Amino acid sequence: MTTNLTGSPATTATDSVLACQDVVKEFHVTGSKVVAVDHVSLDFPAGDVLAVVGESGSGKSTLARMLLRLMPVTSGTITFRGEDVTDLRGKRLRAYWSQVQAVFQDPFASFNQFFPVGDLLRRSLALSSVGREEADALIEECLGYVGLTPAQALHKYPHQLSGGQRQRVMLARALMMRPKVLLADEATSMLDATLRVNVLNVLHDLKDDLGLTVLFITHDIGQACYLADRVAVMEHGKVVERGSTDEVIFAPQAAYTKRLLADVPDLKGSLKRAV
Ligand SMILES: Nc1ncnc2c1ncn2[C@@H]1O[C@H](COP(=O)(O)OP(=O)(O)OP(=O)(O)O)[C@@H](O)[C@H]1O
């Protein structure tokens, strides 16, 4: 049975925008087997921010890649809006990719350094049928969602933007596809503290403004609790804790979660101050 991140049973598949049921990923390396994701079932209700937290090697990125259908599952099922997408191919897989967009850790890696940002964004729309004027309007709208104006971004080359601005341009590019789900995999890890808060706030506002479901993957339980409505904690490929952010912070059950929380001693205090 699938449960949502609060641990209660998922009533129907259509309650969630994205879900995985009993998903496993095994890697076989030089005769030995690594179980990177070990029977994980999660349910992502529409319009929530959900964080998956765990230390390096806990299986977060492997889970993210499977949810994004960038990597096949060993076993288990992934559903999107009630439809089994585990083995989608061709056109239907491309349609899925337009609905589930991702932003990764290093925005520099995703940019061609030799093109101004405006060209890069327009090229992202090249395969769709929108005309030049419509494309420019969409780009302006999506830059607006992440707090940038065309003048701040379009004529600049990637190296002329700050890390936070580059990451916000990547978010704008993802939003141009009008996705239902935005998956951010360590998307704030390379930013300094101020820029990180800035991007976290943008992600939070996107949820409110666009009703996006945001899946936030991080090793940092502090960031997870700052941003997310619900948190799932992964250790050695398994989900060892799940619940609302308050439940996870104030009544953690797993020893592993308690240890992660102990590494952020002022978390409860800073969250209280933010309320
Ligand atoms: N392509 C691969 N081949 C073999 N083993 C892999 C592969 N990708 C991941 N692993 C292993 O699977 C486990 C989970 O890795 P994964 O990258 O998903 O963890 P993570 O929690 O995202 O860590 P990090 O935060 O460091 O990226 C690790 O033991 C890793 O070494």
SSE topology sketch:
Blueprint: E1 16-29, E2 32-45, E3 49-53, H1 60-67, E4 75-80, E5 83-84, H2 90-99, E6 100-103, H3 117-124, H4 132-145, H5 150-153, H6 163-175, E7 181-185, H7 193-210, E8 213-218, H8 221-227, E9 230-235, E10 238-244, H9 245-250, H10 255-262, H11 267-274
Parallel strand pairs: 3-8, 3-9, 6-7, 7-8
Antiparallel strand pairs: 1-2, 1-4, 4-5, 9-10
List descriptors:
about 280 residues; alpha/beta; Rossmann fold; about 40% helix; disordered N terminus; binds adenosine-5'-triphosphate; nucleotide-binding; ATP hydrolysis activity; ABC_transporter-like_ATP-bd; ATP-binding; AAA+_ATPase
CATH architecture: 3-Layer(aba) Sandwich
CA distance, first residue to last residue? 35 Å
SSE sequence, one letter per element: EEEHEEHEHHHHEHEHEEHHH
- Please give the largest β-sheet: 6 strands, mixed
Structural class: alpha/beta
Bound molecules: adenosine-5'-triphosphate
Q: Approximately how much beta-strand content do the residues carry?
A: 25-35%
Gross morphology is globular
Enumerate the spans where pLDDT stays under 50 for 5 or more consecutive residues.
1-14
Domains (count): 1
Domain ABC transporter: 18-261
GO molecular function: ATP binding; ATP hydrolysis activity
Protein name: Peptide/nickel transport system ATP-binding protein
Keywords: ATP-binding, Nucleotide-binding
Descriptive overview:
There is one protein chain. The chain has helices at 60-67, 90-99, 117-124, 132-145, 150-153, 163-175, 193-210, 221-227, 245-250, 255-262, 267-274; strands at residues 16-29, 32-45, 49-53, 75-80, 83-84, 100-103, 181-185, 213-218, 230-235, 238-244. The protein has 275 residues and is of the alpha/beta class. α4 (132-145) crosses α6 (163-175) and α6 packs parallel to α7 (193-210). Strands 6-7-8-3-9-10 form a 6-stranded mixed β-sheet, sandwiched between helices. Strands 2-1-4-5 form a 4-stranded antiparallel β-sheet, covered by helices on one side. A hairpin with a 2-residue loop joins β4 (75-80) and β5 (83-84). Helix content is 38%, strand content 25%. The chain is globular, with a radius of gyration of 19 Å. The chain binds adenosine-5'-triphosphate. Adenosine-5'-triphosphate is lined by residues 27, 29, 34, 36, 54, 56-62, 219.
